[in-house]
Amino acid sequence: PPCPASHIFHMSPPQKSKSETAAQVIKRMNPALRITAQQNRVGPDSEQVYGHDFFSQLDGVAAALDNIEARVYVDGRCVQHQKPLLESGTLGAKGHTQVIVPFLTEPYGTAKTGPENAIPLCTLKNFPHRIEHTLQWARDEFEGLFKIPAVNVNQYLNDSDFVQHTLRLDEAQSLEILKGVYSHLGEQRPQNWDDCVNWARQRWEKLYRNDIRQLLHCFPPEEKTSSGLPFWSGPKRCPHSLSFDPNNTTHMDYIVAASNLYAQIYGIGGTRDRSAILNTLQGVIVPDFSPKSNVKIHVTDQEMEEEKSAVDKNKLEELSKNLASPQSFNISKMHPVEFEKDDDTNFHMDFIVAASNLRAENYDIPPADRHKSKQIAGSIIPAIATTTAAVVGLMCLELYKIVQGHKQIRSYRNGYVNLALPLCTMMLPLGPKVFKVAGKDYTIWDHYPIQGRKNCQEEMTLGELIEHFKHLYNLEITSLFYGEAYPYNSKSESHREKLKNRVSDVVRMVKDIPPHVQVLEFVPCFAEDEDCEMIPPIRYQFR
């Protein structure tokens, strides 16, 4: 059975990324296993690392990606190299799994199933690149500041067994809950309105200045990955810190909303009077901040999980003792805030819009106005760990079948779960669509492989390719498309002059070929069937 991640990282200190730590631990479990830890994003920007050689040597791919674009990309690479793919996703209480087997099932790119709105935690925390990311981050801030702590404190005050119940959860979750309860009963508890304004100003400084400075200290703008690729590339936007300006409307919007919401959960009266709040801000002392070298920034969700396995047991024990008697805290209950986007007087959307747009400014993301923010923030669905666990189990069942080499489509199942109902449905995968070319059946899994060089000889010419293809497949090429480019058309006299040129040189006449590309993919047209809508590509290896 699969080894739980918590068990893996309990066995090794969290000093490296999760992939490296997992590789080390698993090697100790089974020294004969060959495993390589990777940390680069798989996509067009990293094809010099994850190119033809990389995918050709794989037996299959198991993916848990967070957006349609990435899923379609990885699926396309698996189809190109005829590799099986296990695809999955979750959306709140809903989850799906799709098993994709070469020549047996349709690929993901055909079905385009699964949620598009799931956002990795590491993206929300450190690497947002869309306004949806900053809005969900703001929603998480709202829940984590104005609802969850108050709910936990009230449960603690009402239930004498709250601490014992909490300690039955996993240690990382227990520590987080008890730390929150203890701080809101003591050091974080404001005594008056001025304390709430002070808290909001310190929170602004932490989120939009200090945290960004720390991130850039760990990953400077010129940072490179282990493969030599720019760290700040693709969807990773290099951020910049902000400086608080009381004359900036968005800055003050945050202070006003955050101060009032914080006051509400403690039963303290607030105000909308910006002049009074500005006077209070003049007396707030913001401590100096210097980035630290021993801080670890999570690049992936896996690294975030890795940190959770390293729990300070002494701190957990200390907190459980300090919270042993609710009666020792002579305080009143707190007032949790339930998010309501449609009441423009309650500061809820004021906070969401300001918090989101300030973070968007950090990352040079175009801001969203109140109307758009309300639309997006009202439809965000949180992730649920139980759904993830169910999906992982269903994925493993299909993995066993692939490893065992099942060749019948009836052996496999796609899964769909909705734990809120509850519902679990297992379905036979659909087979790939069949199309005909010159009277012969093909599917999306098919292609025409051509070796452009044999026995270290020179690369073949375009004319030799057409002749060789006719000999192999009894089909006459009349034109070739390379992406959006049109390198060859037999009806064009100028194109006929290209027949003596090397195939790669013909392509370079219309489009550059990156140095790492080993295989050129052409879409042909044939004299035998010029009207067919779908045609298998020619995969021409020239390097």
List keywords for this structure.
five-stranded mixed beta sheet, 21 helices, 543 residues, elongated, disordered N terminus, alpha+beta
Work out the radius of gyration: 29 Å
| Number of helical elements | 21
Rounded average pLDDT = 87
Largest sheet: 5 strands, mixed
Query: Poorly predicted ranges (pLDDT <50, ≥5 residues)?
Result: 1-15, 113-117
Structural class: alpha+beta
Measure the end-to-end span: 41 Å
Percent of residues in helices comes to: 40-55%
Shape call: elongated
Q: Into which percentage range does the β-strand content fall? A: 5-15%
Strand order of the largest sheet: 1-2-3-4-5
Number of strands: 12
User: In terms of quaternary structure, what is this?
Assistant: single chain
Provide a quick synopsis of the model.
The chain has 21 helices and 12 strands. The chain has 543 residues and is an alpha+beta fold.
Description:
- The chain is α+β, with helices and mostly antiparallel strands and 543 residues long.
- It is built from 21 helices and 12 strands.
- The strands form 3 sheets. A 5-stranded mixed sheet has the order 1-2-3-4-5, with helices on both faces.
- It starts with a helix and ends with a strand.
